[in-house]
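I trust your eye. Have a critical look at both lines of this record:
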Amino acid sequence: MNCLMTAWHRHESELRGWLRGRLGDPHDAEDLLQDLFLKAMRQDKKFCQLANARAWLFEVARNAIADRLRLKKDQVELPEDLEHEADEPAAVDSMAACLPRALAELAEEDREAITRCDLQGMSQRDYARLKGLSLPGAKSRVQRARKRLRSHLTDACQVRFDESGRICCFVPRRD
């Protein structure tokens, strides 16, 4: 452990400056520097056997920066003033009351396909085995059942869909 501390003290300020230059944010640099120290500590006795501790530290730092930048690239900051679309969840939640009734009014074959594959999460492959169908046959049956349910919901509950296919509004059915 003594060799780690010696190498760390020898290269810490150079690493800090290098990280700040690459990241542009002193707080990010300090976080990464701490992570780098922990990685070095985890090496335990292997760290003392390194031929060039400085090269190892900079290589691990370079890889950590690449990982951090890759993660940052995949994330999108949302604006603070982004308005919440409250209407869609309310429409979907209240429309859920119409779904069981509409589903019950479908033919048994359609109701079973939707219930097993969409509501219970059975794979279409397993559904095909259960019903003695080919996989393409089962997929077709599920797709046809979905289309008929959508059509029935459109008629029975007056469901309307927006341009992206999401439920935008409906008229609840009366008992």
Q: What stands out?
A: The beta strands are 160-161, 167-169.
